[in-house]
Write a structure and sequence with these properties.
alpha+beta; 304 residues; 24% strand; OB fold (Dihydrolipoamide Acetyltransferase, E2P); Arc Repressor Mutant, subunit A; 39% helix
């Protein structure tokens, strides 16, 4: 059974610095963007400020919007299109910059000139208050510093056993990502990046930026997350909705040339049976979280 990729807590500067991609030979496999600072990203969570969005592209039947996301360390583009209707609606809704939390998939585009550009295709986003933004940014800074500490330890002890690191609380995904970062970016200046995180630390602390402000000491703590409470089993009516969505998913996939179910066509078909698009999206999200359905290509669904 496949699983949903975890959302790495990162800052914009790390995304800006990420120039390497990992792709499988199979087009259905997930792709990853490798950063110099110990992350192997398919999905990310960002906390910062979103600017008003602007439409891009010429096809009015396939709307696509882009906004500028900034945090104290840098900036990155956030996009959403017709395959992310709720995220696109949120992106279009605001007319002024606002604090927001964004979860989405990382995309690395390299133009003809060879220059790499990273963007985040939003899966969900919401406007938040300053306190919630700072709390989410604090989590990103904490995890980033922990990953930098892991890189420093691996540099000192390159042959340390992964089991030993895991017993000390280091996630297994971090260990493999850190080793890949070393391989891809042997000359990365991680000390300078640690210094650049001071701006985010100041934001978390609620201190206005000033060029003459003294540097804040950075301490690193590893926090164990409390396991989420067990999910409540879906009701009989919810299971009936899932069966309906899966039945039409199979029908659309079988009729397609690539064995995928087009998301838009699937929503149209279940809509003809009285299941509204918002409710159908909720059912699809639940099925994705449970590992029953996956979306390896944007807008293309299949059973996992």
């Amino acid at each position: 059974m496949s699983f949903r990729e975890p959302a790495w807590r990162v800052v914009a500067r790390e995304l800006e610095s990420s120039l390497e991609e990992e792709r499988s030979a199979s087009e259905r496999a997930a792709s990853y963007v490798i950063s110099p600072f110990g992350s192997r990203m398919n999905r990310v969570l960002l906390a910062g400020t979103l600017s008003p969005a602007e439409p891009i592209g010429r096809d009015e039947s396939q709307p696509f919007w882009r906004a500028r996301f900034t945090d104290p360390t840098g900036a990155v583009a956030v996009t959403a299109g017709s395959f992310q209707p709720r995220a696109m609606a949120q992106l279009r809704a605001a007319t002024t910059p606002r604090s927001a939390i964004v979860v989405g998939k990382v995309h690395l585009y390299r133009g003809r000139d060879g220059i790499a550009n990273v963007s985040v295709r939003a899966e969900s986003l919401r406007t938040v208050g300053e306190g919630e933004e700072r709390a989410a940014l604090a989590d990103a800074v904490r995890q980033t510093l922990d990953r930098l500490d892991l890189l420093a330890r691996l540099e000192e002890e390159p042959n340390i056993a992964p089991e030993l690191l895991a017993r000390s609380g280091v996630p297994t995904l971090w260990i493999s990502a850190a080793r890949e970062s070393f391989r891809r970016y042997p000359e990365a200046d991680r000390t300078q990046f640690r210094k650049e995180l001071q701006a985010a630390v100041r934001r978390v602390a609620g201190i206005a930026m000033a060029t003459d402000a003294p540097a804040l000491p950075v301490t690193v703590q590893i926090h164990r997350e409390v396991p989420p409470p067990p999910r409540v089993a879906p009701s009989a009516s919810e299971r009936a909705e899932e069966s309906l969505v899966l039945e039409f998913l199979d029908q659309v996939a079988e009729a397609s040339l690539d064995a995928y179910a087009d998301r838009r066509e699937l929503l149209s078909r279940v809509g003809s049976r009285g299941l509204g698009s918002d409710r159908a999206e909720e059912v699809l999200t639940r099925l994705e979280d449970e590992g029953v359905v996956e979306e390896p290509i944007v807008g293309k669904l299949r059973r996992a």
